[in-house]
Design goal:
By secondary structure, this protein is an alpha+beta fold. The protein has a single domain, classed as SH3 type barrels (Roll), CATH 2.30.30. Helices cover 43% and strands 29% of the residues. The mean pLDDT is 83.
């Protein structure tokens, strides 16, 4: 009889409910999600600022890898000259960055 009540007391002390490691794990996941959301928002803001600062004559690269020189700026698009006399109209959101000459966009 004494052993049964002692064993019951030992297992009752180990019951923690929903706290402990589960709570830490959930808080860690929430913190990672908040961090990822703020990073994504910051990158989108930087990209919009870069696209708004572009002007005629600048060399840019699109997200598809097309390199061209801006010949006209419209409300929602740029006209890019990709070769002599070849003009493409691309959405402003399709611009990946300024062209540096090594194929990589810069912010």
């Amino acid at each position: 009889m004494y052993l049964a009540s002692g064993a019951h007391a030992a297992t009752a002390g180990k019951a923690t409910g929903f706290g402990g490691p589960y709570l830490i794990f959930i808080l860690l996941i929430v913190a990672m999600m908040v961090w990822m959301f703020t990073q994504q928002s910051r990158q989108q803001k930087q990209k919009r600022q870069m696209q708004a600062s572009l002007g005629v004559g600048e060399r840019v690269i699109t997200i598809g890898g097309v390199v061209g020189t801006i010949r006209a700026v419209e409300e929602r698009a740029f006209k890019l000259e990709v070769a002599d006399g070849v003009i493409l109209q691309v959405s402003k959101s399709a611009i990946g960055g300024r062209y540096q000459g090594d194929g990589q966009p810069s912010a």
